[in-house]
């Protein structure tokens, strides 16, 4: 796929990939890991469908350390009839996410967060190449997610690569959540908490690269427990009530929803389910929930 030159399209794709990545790894480590599922990214699922399904824990970045996909993952993906992912990044979803990131009614960031936080936020976004004219219209949750992510170069994060390959191969693609549901995880937070999280992010900008590098290293090692610990450390400065709320919205609620919605596709067999890696582990994780429903799960990679 050639580099995208149209600025709006590029920003839409970057916005969606950043939103999903932070949901999957930026705060997902708050749930405790279950020992049986503390390592491993690719799992074979058997027990209800005529053919085995696969669940793969993704990381929504374009880093060369995680792409191209490992051979067992490519083989499982190639054998699947359908790709089931958190959000299908089609044009409508991209447009909805992009639109939700900015105020639609003439409000500006300074009116919400005050002049000091506005100055810091717009300066940080300017270093990412986002001009103040755009930054000043962004909502606090959208800014904190953008700043929590490494800068995108191509926009071709792992999930988007899987999506494009599935379309090219003629596979059916289904999303487990809508764009509105994913956006709502942060957009529906009380404004005081959005501002708190934005301030925490700005205060820790000098540590983000270190955290990001360690997180990717843990992912490459297939160490879900290590990723959990790193993310727990990243949220340590936040208020305990805020951490609990984020845990419920990002992990528990979404895991329950995604498991319910993936079941029909698993029962048909030959599905490849791609979700953020830290949705897999823990007593409230997708793997444990599937085990409790009678599926047999075997680690492949």
Produce the secondary structure layout.
Layout lengths: L6 H20 L15 E5 L6 E6 L12 H9 L2 E4 L5 H10 L8 H5 L1 H12 L5 H4 L4 H8 L10 H11 L3 E4 L3 H9 L3 H13 L1 H16 L3 H11 L5 H29 L2 E6 L9 H7 L3 E4 L2
Parallel strand pairs: 2-5, 3-4, 3-5
Antiparallel strand pairs: 1-2, 1-6
Structural description of this entry:
This protein is an alpha/beta fold and 301 residues long. The chain has one domain (7-101, 139-299). Helix content is 54%, strand content 10%. It is built from 14 helices and 6 strands. The protein has helices at residues 7-26, 71-79, 91-100, 109-113, 115-126, 132-135, 140-147, 158-168, 179-187, 191-203, 205-220, 224-234, 240-268, 286-292; strands at 42-46, 53-58, 82-85, 172-175, 271-276, 296-299. It has a 6-stranded mixed β-sheet, sandwiched between helices. The longest helix is centred in the C-terminal third of the chain and has 29 residues, at 240-268. The chain is globular and about 60 Å long. Mean pLDDT is 85; it is low at 1-35.
């Amino acid at each position: 796929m050639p580099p995208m030159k149209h600025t709006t399209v590029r920003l839409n794709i970057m916005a969606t990939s950043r939103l999903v990545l932070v949901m999957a790894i930026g705060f997902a480590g708050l749930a405790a890991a279950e020992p049986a599922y503390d390592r491993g990214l690719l799992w074979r699922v058997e027990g209800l469908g005529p053919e085995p399904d696969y669940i793969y824990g993704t990381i929504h970045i374009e880093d060369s350390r995680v792409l191209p996909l490992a051979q067992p993952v490519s083989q499982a993906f190639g054998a699947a009839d359908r790709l089931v992912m958190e959000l299908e990044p089609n044009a409508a979803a991209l447009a909805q996410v992009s639109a939700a990131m900015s105020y639609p009614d003439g409000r500006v960031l300074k009116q919400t967060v005050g002049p000091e936080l506005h100055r810091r936020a717009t300066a940080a976004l300017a270093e990412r190449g986002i001009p103040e004219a755009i930054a000043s219209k962004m909502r606090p949750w959208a800014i904190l997610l953008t700043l929590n992510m490494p800068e995108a170069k191509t926009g071709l994060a792992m999930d988007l690569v899987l999506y494009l390959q599935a379309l090219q191969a003629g596979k059916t693609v289904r999303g487990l959540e809508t764009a509105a549901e994913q956006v709502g995880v942060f957009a529906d937070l009380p404004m005081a908490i959005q501002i708190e999280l934005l301030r925490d992010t700005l205060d820790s900008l000098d540590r983000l690269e270190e955290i990001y590098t360690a997180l990717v290293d843990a992912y490459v090692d297939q160490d879900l427990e290590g990723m959990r610990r790193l993310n727990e450390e990243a949220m340590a400065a936040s208020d305990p009530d805020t951490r609990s709320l984020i845990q419920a919205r990002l992990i528990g609620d979404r895991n329950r929803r995604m498991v319910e919605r993936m079941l029909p596709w698993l029962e048909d067999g030959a599905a490849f389910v791609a979700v953020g890696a830290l949705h897999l582990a823990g007593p409230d994780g997708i793997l444990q929930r599937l085990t409790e429903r009678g599926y047999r799960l075997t680690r492949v990679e």
